[in-house]
Design brief:
Layout: H1 3-13, H2 19-33, H3 46-57, H4 62-70, H5 73-76, H6 81-88, H7 90-101, H8 111-127, H9 130-144, H10 151-171, H11 175-189, H12 191-225, E1 231-236, H13 239-249, E2 260-266, H14 269-282, E3 284-292, E4 305-310, E5 316-323, H15 324-332, H16 334-340, H17 346-350, H18 361-375, H19 379-391, E6 394-398, E7 404-408, H20 413-420, H21 422-426, E8 428-433, E9 436-438, E10 450-454, H22 464-467, H23 471-503, H24 510-515, H25 517-520, H26 525-534, H27 539-545, H28 552-561, H29 568-571, E11 576-577, E12 585-587, E13 599-604, E14 608-613, E15 629-634, E16 643-652, H30 657-667, E17 671-679, E18 686-695, H31 698-709, E19 714-719
Parallel strand pairs: 2-5, 12-14
Antiparallel strand pairs: 1-2, 3-4, 4-5, 6-7, 8-9, 8-10, 11-15, 13-14, 13-15, 16-18, 16-19, 17-18
């Protein structure tokens, strides 16, 4: 494309375009790239020029077109950011800088690096959405020329596009860009499936081409007869869209019935609903296949009425009915707002957005992501949450007051609570769905009314993280879990320090301990006390930091008074996650605990943490002390280790009964650590055996218990609950 052709493209839709800026950017970029070549052998400058051409199809402003021409200059030539700012101003320099920082977004590098680059992309987008538009146009042209890239790099780029760029375009409402990116990536990642689907589409098109034309004409005529001027366009589903539907619904290609669809484009919202009535009078509607995205738009501002009908020759076809403005927004998303915000019916179609993109739902979603990354604990978490947000379809639910809450498909009341507000999620103890009490694991459906039941005493359990679907909920649960654990350890640490001071004849004073914090390397007193509670910092170190001298004689005396404890190596050999490895851990002897069953930890002041299975009766005594509970999970890689499990076995009082029990345990490689025989009161024919076994995991234990139940001398086998 020549220089004057680019300028003509822009001035055609924007007569007030800055032609001088466009000419200067064109010449500067062409000179900067000089003799550089692409993998195809063509001049490198053709790439930024084609990116600019794609953006002219979106009818973007002169500054964005100029930024597209310049977007690779700082990254790939001798040009500098300062030089760009001097020649083209701070606005364009900021756009180019935002693009330069994210130029190496590479999703096959280490996960932390992936996440950091994605953070940069979203931050740059949140400051100016035009960064995203240029980046997507850049990726689109790279995908169009992917055939010239080496095969291994081609697959990597295609996967990267499918993982991030295509869904990101979809979330910002740019469906046309998303469709093309997905189809090109699909062709590379799954060429066989793509070829089969294309052949099927070609055959169907040959068989049904006349039918599609007749439906277009019939609908256009019917609408005109009712005073509605409409454009009716028949279309086929895209190859990747068909493949995704086959995967989602577990259908074969031959079972798909709604491969063809029609778009009915009318003038006003009122005509949309009138056209719907005409369509349903003309063709029989398919029950359950109607969606009104005009009254309830998608989160990316998509608006349209969807209905599926039975057309001629019993063909099932999907109808999408929308206004011209809705169609432009459906195809171009945030890029459409800048052009159509001043159109006569923009208020109705755009829901009164005050400025291009800035107030759109899609842009609010982007700002939500940026808020998440600012609150996130680690780049890995952010990458995980962002991918969750990108890939989910949506359901729409309501609060009791009628507020609309958009959630990913598969979301639960936990996600709903956190979507309303973080404090609502943290205090959630139950939910009502459509007026009835429902479990927190209930999958919400479109139109559900959800009421969250709250309690100020609630702290979200760590197990909720596995139930939540949204990144926001998962991040909030992790933060709350960390905060609760920190609070628990700080309380334990405070008690340890108080006891140590008492042994030295001193009383605990917050100010004195706080004054010692700088010498302990902690920012505040809670951090230091939590470190003491976790066992990372000793109480003696705190005493020394407070200026209390402890001679060797006194230290030996204090140690002699300390409660006897197991050796550290034995304490720390319990393979669990959810607590620092330096904390003293022991398994409750009254029940035992084995990998495979859910466990919790109870903080024992001055002793560490005792591990209980969730069914242990001993936990009841801690019901009113939630601050002492620690959520734990078994770690992996402990196959050769044995764990205690206490069981009760009822046997007949006859010769050989005990031998049957011990032999069954031995045959399955179980080890008896302790055994006590207790005579049953009033039942001389039976004895109860209290046995502590050593087994590898829950499966091993269940095998032994099942074997015992099969013995003729055994009447009952059960776990001891304490």
């Amino acid at each position: 494309m020549r220089q004057y052709e680019l300028v003509e493209r822009v001035t055609k839709y924007d007569p007030d375009a800055d032609e001088d800026l466009l000419n200067r950017a064109y010449v500067y970029a062409m000179k900067a790239h000089g003799n550089q070549r692409r993998a195809s052998g063509e001049a490198y400058f053709n790439h930024p020029l084609e990116v600019a051409a794609i953006l002219t199809e979106m009818k973007l402003d002169s500054a964005t077109i100029a930024a597209a021409l310049l977007h690779d200059t700082v990254e790939d030539t001798a040009a500098t950011h300062q030089e760009i700012e001097e020649k083209f101003g701070p606005d364009i320099a900021a756009l180019v800088d935002g693009l330069t920082k994210i130029a190496k977004l590479d999703l096959v590098t280490k996960e932390a690096a992936q996440a950091e680059n994605l953070r940069k992309l979203l931050l740059a987008m949140s400051r100016d959405v035009r960064v995203l538009l240029v980046k997507l146009a850049d990726r689109l042209h790279n995908m169009r020329t992917l055939e010239y890239v080496k095969p291994e790099k081609r697959v990597r780029i295609a996967q990267e596009t499918m993982d991030i760029y295509a869904p990101l375009a979809g979330r910002m409402g740019m469906q046309a860009v998303r469709d093309e990116l997905e189809d090109i990536a699909f062709k590379v990642l799954n060429p066989d499936a793509n070829k089969i689907i294309l052949a099927r589409l070609e055959k169907l098109h040959a068989e049904s081409g006349g039918i599609l034309k007749s439906i277009e004409q019939e609908l256009t005529q019917k609408l005109a007869e009712n005073g509605i001027k409409a454009e009716v366009h028949g279309r086929e589903k895209r190859p990747y869209s068909i493949f995704r539907k086959m995967e989602r619904k577990l259908l074969s290609l031959g079972q798909l019935s709604d491969i063809f669809g029609f778009r009915v484009i009318v003038g006003t919202v009122d005509q949309c609903y009138r056209a719907l009535g005409i369509v349903h009078r003309t063709y029989r509607a398919v029950p359950g296949r109607f969606k009104d995205y005009i009254s309830t738009p998608k989160q990316n501002d998509y608006r349209s009425i969807h209905t599926t009908v039975i057309g001629p020759h019993h063909m099932r076809v999907e109808m999408q009915i929308r206004t011209r403005l809705m169609h432009e927004i459906a195809e171009r998303g945030v890029a459409a707002h800048a052009i159509y915000k001043d159109a006569p019916d923009a208020k109705e179609a755009l829901d009164g957005f005050k400025s291009p993109a800035a107030e759109s739902n899609a842009y609010r979603w982007l700002r939500h992501l940026v808020e998440m990354l600012q609150e996130g604990e680690s780049p890995r978490e952010f990458l995980e949450h962002t991918k969750l947000e990108l890939f989910h379809d949506q359901v729409f639910c309501f609060t009791p007051k009628g507020k609309l809450i958009a959630l990913p498909k598969g979301a639960t009341p936990i996600d709903f609570a956190y979507a309303v507000h973080t404090s609502v999620g943290d205090s959630c103890v139950g939910a009502k769905v459509n007026g009835s009490h429902a479990p927190l694991v209930t999958e919400l459906q479109n139109g559900d009314e959800v009421e969250i039941i709250r309690s100020d005493a609630q702290t979200p359990p760590a197990a909720w993280e596995g139930l939540a679907v949204t990144g926001k909920a998962r991040a909030a649960i992790r933060r709350a879990t960390r905060a609760a654990a920190r609070k628990q350890f700080a309380g334990l640490g405070r008690e340890i320090v108080e006891k140590m001071l008492a042994k030295l004849g001193k009383s605990y004073a917050e100010k004195e301990v706080a004054a010692a914090m700088p010498r302990l390397g902690h920012k505040n007193i809670d951090d230091a006390l939590a470190a003491v509670g976790r066992g990372e910092l000793s109480a003696i170190d705190v005493m020394k930091a407070m200026g209390l001298t402890i001679d060797d004689t006194k230290l030996k005396e204090l140690r002699r008074k300390a409660p006897a404890r197991k050796a550290d190596a034995e304490e720390l050999s319990v393979p669990v996650r959810g607590v620092s490895r330096t904390v003293a851990l022991k398994i409750a002897p009254e029940t035992g605990a084995v990998p495979g069953e859910r466990i919790v930890g109870i903080l024992m002041p001055g002793e560490g943490i005792t591990i209980y299975p969730i069914f242990a009766k001993a936990l009841e005594q801690f019901d009113n002390q939630p601050e002492r509970w620690v959520d734990l999970a078994w770690d992996t890689g402990a196959e050769e280790q044995r764990f205690p499990a206490r069981i009760k076995v009822s046997i007949l009082n006859e010769v050989g009964s005990l031998a049957q029990v011990t032999q069954a345990i031995s045959d399955l490689s179980g080890n008896i650590d302790a055994l006590q025989m207790v005579a049953r009161e009033g039942a001389r024919d039976f004895f109860d055996l209290d046995i502590t076994l050593e087994v590898h995991d829950l499966k091993h234990l269940n095998e032994i218990m099942a074997s015992l139940r099969g013995k003729t001398a055994v009447s009952d086998v059960s776990r001891t609950t304490g």
